[in-house]
Amino acid sequence: MTGIHDLSAERLDGKEQQLSDYAGQVTLVVNTASKCGFTYQYEGLQSLYEEFKGDGFTILGFPCNQFGAQEPGSEEEIGAFCQKNYGVDFPMFAKVDVNGPDTHPVFKTLKKAAPGLLGSESIKWNFTKFLIDRNGKVIDRYAPTTKPEELKGAIKKLL
């Protein structure tokens, strides 16, 4: 089975990023959106990143426009929005699909490893979060309503 570290994804700047570059780090993967009721979570995500990045933790943000067209901007607009409004400096990737026939391989892998409620692999909304250990094993999946600060304990255990 393909693991998360076997994959790559396009960054906001258009460069391809090997996810093996994050091997050895505890990683939180989040599907994001700039015009969502949960967009305020960028602030909490950035705070987590700042608190733990020195300990081998990273966050990978993947914008998605599949839920209520809440990420309509270009990659350049998304990056500017995240930086200007929330000071985001964790890695952000190009827009992806997280459900359906064009689901990005990263999310195919994550959803298979950590199905949601009642075993459903489908992602229900923006800001679904996947916590991955240093070896690339998906540890848990968190609902959009789970605030980033609620993940501190789980992150600390893996660090």
What do these coordinates show?
It is a single chain. With 159 residues, this protein is an alpha+beta fold. The chain has a single domain (4-158), classed as Glutaredoxin (3-Layer(aba) Sandwich), CATH 3.40.30.10. It is built from four helices and six strands, in the order E-E-E-H-E-H-H-E-E-H. The chain has a four-stranded mixed β-sheet with strand order 4-3-5-6, covered by helices on one side. Helix 1 links the parallel strand 3 (26-32) and strand 4 (57-63). The radius of gyration is 14 Å and the shape is globular. The two termini are 25 Å apart.
Task: State the end-to-end CA separation.
Answer: 25 Å
- Main CATH class: Alpha Beta
How does the overall form come out from the CA principal axes?
A: globular
Please outline the major beta sheet: 4 strands, mixed
What is the count of distinct domains? 1
Going by CATH, the architecture would be: 3-Layer(aba) Sandwich
Give me the Rg, rounded.
Answer: 14 Å
Organism: Sphingoaurantiacus capsulatus
GO molecular function, one term: peroxidase activity
Domain Thioredoxin: 1-159
Family: Belongs to the glutathione peroxidase family.
